[in-house]
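We include this case.
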Amino acid sequence: MRVLRPLTLVWPGLPWLWLRGSVAGLVLALAFAVVLDMAILSTWIWSEFLELPLVVGLWAATGLIWAIATVSAVTAFPAPLHAGHDPAADALFAAARDAYLARDWLAAETKLRSLLALRPTDGEAQLLLATLLRRAGRRREARDALDKLSRSDSGAPWRSVIARELARIDADDAVSPEADDAAPAVILPLPTGSRLADGGERAA
């Protein structure tokens, strides 16, 4: 995986599309494909339809897009997901988890968003935020967060939990357009050794 990651720099937008499931990365990758196809077609297939300066301009635009996108991707290349634990980030997650279990949605969301500003690829934090949004009745935001997480490699360990959360949102939508705040708080089933699971064991 370490060898394949830098290869995504070859195509503009691919690092963010492939490694993080970014919609912006998809748009950039498709835009580059269109410009490159137009340059190839105008050079070797439809060469009689465009004059040489326009063909040169297309290739120049293709090269410029590639250079700018590559330099931008190199300077902000997505970090590996399992790059080690940051004590400050772990402390923020623990505080957010405790606020979530206490049903203090505002405090939990504030801490989770602060954590994600520091570590945007933290899959556990993204999942907990999506669950919090569902329980707070903000189902559309919760679904968007889950969809984004499912498209990224940080969501790979959480596929089954994401599917369950989406099923709960669908069930809530079928019953009522309003959130059911009377439901008991749920501790997410996380793999052994995760921060949330460790917190649950300490709470018990």
The chain is about 70% helix and 0% strand.
